[in-house]
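Record now logged for everyone:
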Amino acid sequence: MPPPQGITNFRSLLGLLATQLLISLGDITFSALTLYLLLPAGGPGFLTFVAIFAAATMAGVVSHVPGGVGVFETIVIAALPASVGVDKIAAALLLYRLIYFLVPFALALILMAAFESWRALDGRTRDSGISRLFAATEPAFRAIEPAAPILLAIMTFGSGLWMSLSALLPPVSQTTEAAEALFPLAFVEGSTLLTSALGALLIILSLGLARRSLGAFWLTTGAMLAGAVVALLQRTEMEQAVTLIIAVLILMPFRGAFHRRSVLTHGAMTPGWAALLLAAIFSVGFVLFYAHKSTPYAHELWWQFASDANAPRALRSGLLISLFIGAGSLLFLLRAPRFQPQPPDAETLEAARRIAMASDQPDAGFALTGDKAIMLSDGGDALVMFGVSGGSWLAYGGPVGEAVAAEEIGFTFVDAARRAGARPVFYEIGPESVPLMLELGMVLHKMGEKAVVDLTRFTLDGAARKKLRAAHARAGRDGLSLEIVSPPHDDGLLSQFHRISDEWLAAKNVREKGFSVGRFDRDWLNRWPIAVVRQGDRMVAFANLMATDSRETCSIDLMRHSGAAPGGTMEFLFTELMLQLKAQGFARFSLGMAPLSGLAPNRSGRLWDRFGNLIYRHGGNFYNFEGLRAFKAKFDPDWVPHYLATPSGLPPLMPLADAARLIGRDRSRQTPNAARV
């Protein structure tokens, strides 16, 4: 007799836990062994050191400092005997970081480049062992593929910093000293300055690589090859030449990842990149000081030229590096273009309509409301719709359009917002935009869940739909019927809609809203089909339907009913509408957002999730969050998470306040804005 399912699952869980413990113990043991072998004699035994290493690693994790840098080293130095020597321990820790972090990073880049080359060959060597290995690990490589530009930017930044610092250091071998004596002075001086300039250029270009700039890709390739040529001509930095050639070989398979053709200096400098460039300049100054601190300073050092004059050469190189990095930073800061909002013209709205109708997202149609700025890509095949409120530029949804152009316009929007001194925010984005948001460096905050009904399996049959079927039948007995009217709509019909809309607004004691919803406007309603609910010959409710040319998904914008509408009218509208849309071939129907639904503070541990969940559970006095979700749950939808993307991981109170002002703004007194790239 086989054991019960519960016991089998428990045994599987124990086996998985034991495997994870063994892997973790092996990782800590081998990591500790690496550092232990680098430390000088006189320290504790290996088992004692493993305990010290584990405690230092845990402290680094708890501190939330990236890589535990500083925290880990402090605990190791404090735990080891003073007789070992702090300088020797620090040297061992530095070597440990290089061996255990930089070497695996370099190997990972080489493997990624080999995988990209294998893909470019379309697996023509499928019979080889390497081909079978790449085929088996392809899902893992594809998962990290979007991070390739960032990883290559890190590699370029490190290469540039290495070249810059190498130009500051005095010769460390007799071969180098002999070369300085043999080569002409102009060659020695010129090659050092050129190496420092190319290193500074690579530091600046790493920002362009992170932004997927095609120009930055080719400039980086050229700078690395030039650096390799200079090192080969010097015949003293052969390892630098080999490393730069390998870096170029790593870059080349990723050519397809760099497709942004915008001007390199159009990218706004973020605080993080500014801090990184300042750290590079500080590193140059630090190395320059400590490498030549024994050389007494004199004004003559700046114009002293000699084959053995290492300190003057280092001073000139350090100045050149600092000037290059500083000038490059200022270029990014001052040359990024400003976008002045302008009223949309007919051409802009027509381009936005074409892009929206070609997408699969019906909410893209909100670009045509006229209350949002429209930022078009250079090719006119992607857009971002946004509004300006407070300190935020709020885009509604993610970029819309062809994938490459959408990514380009997303970067352009973020740069333009930052250039204007505002925070870029993407409001109510779906899962399809999440990868792009991460590439843009945005932080996701869950706003709630959108209820999307799969029309291919929607039916009133079965015990699970008994209540819905009964409500639909009762509405039929009350004389309710639904008709979908195609645009353009005649003035008489629009006048009836207007009467119902005014009655609904007065009953709810609200006014028209904007940004994330439409408003009652004849031009707006004439763009869409309208579902009309009648009781006999009298119109009692209406809703405009939003869909694209793909006819994959349909959603509702305005939903308004008169006071004379019988109970259950809106439930009948949804039910009958979904049945008719299913008959027309639509695959999905969106019931809209359930705000703050689906937040899981116990799992995420985020402050915003705790705050939002508290409002969702106890905020019924000012908004019926739970009631809205319960109503939509009647139709058995799929709950799709939607997010607010902001530049900061802090709770998004200010962006939400800006969004609330934008949504509640009286649009009858507002001048619509548009921007064109």
